[in-house]
Amino acid sequence: MDLLEKQLKALADKNRLTLLACMKNGEVCVCEFVEVLGISQPAVSQQLKKLKDAGIILERKEGTWKYYRIADQLSPVVEAVINELKTNDGGNTCSC
C-alpha cells in the first residue's frame, strides 16, 4: 500500500483525529487518551497503532507507560490536515 494512502486511511477516523488534536500541544501519555476518548485502553492502543504504522506519530516508552507525539517529518497533505485540527486552545473539548 502506498504510504500516502495508508496515511489518509489513518486520518479517516474521528477518534484518531481527536488523538492528533491532543498531540498538537506536545507529547501525551496513553493514559490521558483513555479519558479523552472515553474508550478502553486496548481500543486507544489500536487507534494509536494505526497512526504509528502510517508514520504520523512516534512512540516513546518510559517505565510502564507509552508516550506519543506527532512525527517531525510529515507529508504536506498530512500536515495540512493536522494544522486544521483544533486543540484545547482553539475551543475544542480536548482536555489534553
UniProtKB/TrEMBL annotation:
Q: Which UniProt keywords apply?
A: DNA-binding, Transcription, Transcription regulation
InterPro entries reported for this sequence: ArsR-like_HTH, HTH_ArsR_DNA-bd_dom, HTH_MetalResp_TranReg, WH-like_DNA-bd_sf, WH_DNA-bd_sf
Q: Where is the signal peptide?
A: none
Q: Name one Pfam family in it.
A: HTH_5
Which residues does the UniProt record annotate as the domain HTH arsR-type?
1-89
Q: Does the keyword Nucleotide-binding apply?
A: no
Q: Which domain of life is it from?
A: Bacteria
Q: Which GO terms describe its molecular function?
A: DNA binding; DNA-binding transcription factor activity
Q: What is this protein called?
A: ArsR family transcriptional regulator
| Organism for this UniProt entry | Ureibacillus thermosphaericus
The beginning of the lineage is: Bacteria, Bacillati, Bacillota, Bacilli, Bacillales
